[in-house]
């Protein structure tokens, strides 16, 4: 609470595992290490309208490699092979209990909380082969899944606004309420495809305003009620 970190035994646990320490004395890691890191495409009405896309009835999703995970204030390298990379500020859903074939009401109860995500994406890789959009490769470079700073368990997602600042200048701002498929619908649909486990993470997709980034840029995803998630881009060592 406040400027102090209170260690806990596990995700969602009230059991302490040591004395509180000052946040100034620690390096924050991602608040969850997901077994599955799932991301959505075409899940916001404004972006769908601009792109001329139909509203999906089931989530259009991809996976990010677990090695893409990075946390608050990380330094993320832009590999030369990635080419043109964009930021995507997103709301993240953290699963709190094992679920399979559940309806929206049960899915709502299965959501542990919400976090900030920067779903970095290589557009060069994504569209390099006309026969096969490379979603996983484009989104799975080391560090390309920035998550944090906390998981907030007490909020109404409909009241949230997702903002992205690049070198302190606002570049993206959109309401979570513009989602096509709400978090409980997303979780319900995905649970029909696969078992979801505690700690699994779902990025709800982004809206208008995603832009290319370059080495040296400081990117901050901010969501009211959750906090701010910063990352600094570095150049390739190749």
Characterise the protein shown here.
With 238 residues, the protein is of the alpha+beta class. The chain has one domain (28-234): Alpha-Beta Complex (Fumarylacetoacetate hydrolase, domain 2), CATH 3.90.850.10. The protein is built from 5 helices and 16 strands. The chain has helices at 45-51, 104-110, 123-126, 135-139, 183-193, and strands at residues 4-5, 21-22, 37-41, 60-63, 69-70, 74-77, 85-86, 89-95, 111-119, 121-122, 145-152, 161-166, 169-175, 201-203, 218-223, 227-234. Strands 4-3-14-8-9-11-5 form a 7-stranded mixed β-sheet. The radius of gyration is 17 Å and the shape is globular. The N and C termini lie far apart (42 Å). 39% of the residues are buried.
For the record, the count of structural domains works out to 1
The backbone outline, from C-alpha atoms, is globular
What topology, given as strand order, has the largest sheet?
Answer: 4-3-14-8-9-11-5
Name given to the CATH architecture:
Alpha-Beta Complex
What's the main sheet like? 7 strands, mixed
CATH topology title = Fumarylacetoacetate hydrolase, domain 2
* Top CATH class: Alpha Beta
Number of strands: 16
CATH superfamily: Fumarylacetoacetase-like, C-terminal domain
Distance between the termini: 42 Å
Helix percent reads 10-25%
The string of secondary-structure elements, in order, is EEEHEEEEEHEEHHEEEHEEE
Counting H and I runs of at least 4 residues, what is the number of helices? 5
CA-based gyration radius: 17 Å
Uncertain spans: none
Category from helices, strands and their pairing: alpha+beta
Instruction: Note the beta-strand portion.
Output: 25-35%
> Which whole number gives the mean pLDDT?
94
